[in-house]
Fold this protein.
Amino acid sequence: MATLVEIAAQLVSSHASSTPMTSEELLAEISKVHAALKSLEAGQAIDGGEEAKPTLTLKEAFRKNEIVCLVCGKGGFKTLARHLSTAHGMKPGAYKKQFGISSKQALSAKSYSEARRKMAQDRGLADNLAKAREVRMANIEAKKGVAAKPAKPVKAAKAAKAAKAPAKTAKPKAAPKATK
């Protein structure tokens, strides 16, 4: 039968295979797991009230070619929004607030953002956007100009139409009955 230290080492090595850890973090993790296993063997309850803190800094989480989730420690993502919603049921704003990330910080890898920006520039999307904005503003200005000019003729047309319509005669109302 394996000893508690061996079991703790196996558990931590499994965790370390998916999460990058320094040697100090490995030793601390082994001691935590060993203490937890020892208290379980003695029949004591484990105090799990302590909230897990991320082992990565923000600079380490936002790498050039990937982004690492600070909630679960998984890495290799180009963008994080979809992972947050599917795996953690979290919106990007809540994630940024929880970990103190600036609202201006994109939740995507730097190389991914740069590649998308370059692709947009190569396709001329910025020029197309500027042209579309100019056309839209011209249409708005044209509508404002057209709407202001026919306002007077419309009123005159209504007045002419009302003059052509036969005049309605009002029926006299019956006098109210006097009550005694």
Q: What stands out?
A: The chain is about 60% helix and 0% strand. The helical segments are 4-18, 23-41, 58-61, 81-88, 92-99, 110-123, 125-148, 151-164.
